[in-house]
Write a structure and sequence with these properties.
With 205 residues, the chain is of the alpha+beta class. The chain has two domains: 87 residues, Glutaredoxin; 107 residues, Glutathione S-transferase Yfyf (Class Pi), Chain A, domain 2, CATH 1.20.1050. Strands 2-1-3-4 form a four-stranded mixed sheet, with helices on one face.
Length: 205
Amino acid sequence: MIILYTKQSASPNIRRVSIMLHETGLPYTVQHVAKGEDGKFSDTYLAISPNATVPAIVDQENGASLFESGAILLYLAEKTQRFLPADLKSRGEVFKWLMFEVANLGPAMGELYHSLILETAEVSEAHLQRYRDKLARYCAMLERQLNGREYLCGDYCIADIALYPWCTVLEDLAEVSLGDYPGLNRWATTIGQRPAVIQAIELGA
């Protein structure tokens, strides 16, 4: 059994792990975590997620605990031997697009979310536009990668699972229309119709 540590509202980082669990069919249970009155997570949870973030998982089968959603996706792919190619060259393709999300698209979306939703002080339009421009460039990169491919690396993989949840909020958060990127739009629509993705979103982990 996998224990998925999350919070009441599912962020894209949480949603991708939930999608992966549904795609693999691994049995799991959800445990919501929250900060205490002192504004901190418990020492028990910090032992699982030292960075004090969600999602995190514990695999009760072997006692493994992981934080950071990219690492969790890799672990679950290795555990189930699914959504990660067997040969090294193809795995390298998946790794680079997964790391692109982890190092670039995800942080840029996170910065926009923090600035627009969580920031109490006024944020300059130039600051917001910097990240919107980055995201438009990233969408153009993904559009080129998807040219002639159904999924980012040919077959559906953890890179698709990592990137998809952010694409569902691009329009609202980054003012980037998927309609301007027909390949990316088709890709997002295709993934959104997968039964496991529908189930994960409906449950809201």
